[in-house]
Amino acid sequence: MTPLDAAARLVGLQAQVSRDPYVALWSRLDPFAPTDLAEPIADRRAVRMPFLRATLHLVTAEDALTLRPVLQPVLRRSFHSGSPFGRQLDGVDIDEVTGFGRALLEEQPRTRAELLPELADRWPDRDASALAYACTYLLPLVQVTPRVSGREAAGRRSPPSRRGSARSWRPRPRPMTS
């Protein structure tokens, strides 16, 4: 079984920490090499995204587009009831916030910190962090590559993650081989 097949069969692998899916696959597949997973991530056939209970999971690109909308009501409910950020935004039109955030993130992938000044300018009387969390929690976003590398798999600290629209981060065509 390939790592991509395993991710599809399991409907995602815990990926809160970049190396988690590597360890999960290493313990399930024989043989397994880190490049077996790095390649599908690099060519966008697999992505890390908030998925189950807003926890980052590694999923196939197909599952990202198919299943994430099914989970959206659960994520919205948990943001408003179980998240301190949701409670800080009582009275704010969340659809307006996420629409504004979606436009920014479709323009180019950004870190949460890069969203803050844009959101603070638009809603100066609201907590910019809570607004940014609304966008990164509620929108179907993926952590864009390069994010997972050999260094991360080895457990070294990685740079802040950039997030982009799941729809715009589609699989790249595979190069033709002669």
**Whole-number tally of structural domains:** 1
Oligomer: single chain
Q: What is the succession of H and E elements?
A: HEHHEEHHHHHEHE
Tell me the fraction of residues in β-strands, as a range.
Answer: 5-15%
Percent range of helical residues: 40-55%
In whole angstroms, how far apart are the ends?
A: 26 Å
Number of strands: 5
Main β-sheet description: 3 strands, antiparallel
User: Averaging pLDDT over every residue, what do you get?
Assistant: 85
State the shape.
elongated
Instruction: Report low-confidence residues grouped into runs of 5 or more.
Output: 147-153
Structural class: mainly alpha
* Radius of gyration from the alpha-carbon trace, in angstroms: 17 Å
Number of helices: 9
Strand order of the largest sheet: 1-3-2
Provide a descriptive summary of the structure in words:
- With 178 residues, this protein is mainly alpha-helical.
- The chain has one domain (3-165).
- The protein is built from 9 helices and 5 strands; from the N terminus they run αβααββαααααβαβ.
- The chain has helices at 3-10, 20-28, 34-42, 61-82, 84-88, 94-107, 112-122, 128-138, 150-153; strands at residues 13-14, 46-52, 55-60, 141-143, 163-165.
- The strands form 2 sheets. The protein has a 3-stranded antiparallel β-sheet.
- It is elongated and about 55 Å long.
- Mean pLDDT is 85; it is low at 147-153.
